[in-house]
Amino acid sequence: MEDLETLKTKVKKLNAQATQAKMDLHDLSEELPTNWENILEVAQKAFDSHKALMAARKELAAATA
């Protein structure tokens, strides 16, 4: 198990990545139908980023409990 500070840093990093992925998806949606070919790629990146963030938050919660 990672130490508490490492987990907090990991969550911060993943949160920033997830936020960026969310914004990329939002930006793409506003540009549609331009770049429609990128929908699956951008959505998958957003999904993966948020999945990793939720797992890290769960790990952090378990470590602080």
Automatic annotation (TrEMBL):
<dbReference type="InterPro" id="IPR007774">
    <property type="entry name" value="Put_N_fixation"/>
</dbReference>
<feature type="coiled-coil region">
    <location>
        <begin position="4"/>
        <end position="31"/>
    </location>
</feature>
<keyword id="KW-0175">Coiled coil</keyword>
<dbReference type="InterPro" id="IPR029012">
    <property type="entry name" value="Helix_hairpin_bin_sf"/>
</dbReference>
<comment type="similarity">
    <text>Belongs to the UPF0437 family.</text>
</comment>
<dbReference type="Pfam" id="PF05082">
    <property type="entry name" value="Rop-like"/>
</dbReference>
<protein>
    <submittedName>
        <fullName>CCE_0567 family metalloprotein</fullName>
    </submittedName>
</protein>
<keyword id="KW-0535">Nitrogen fixation</keyword>
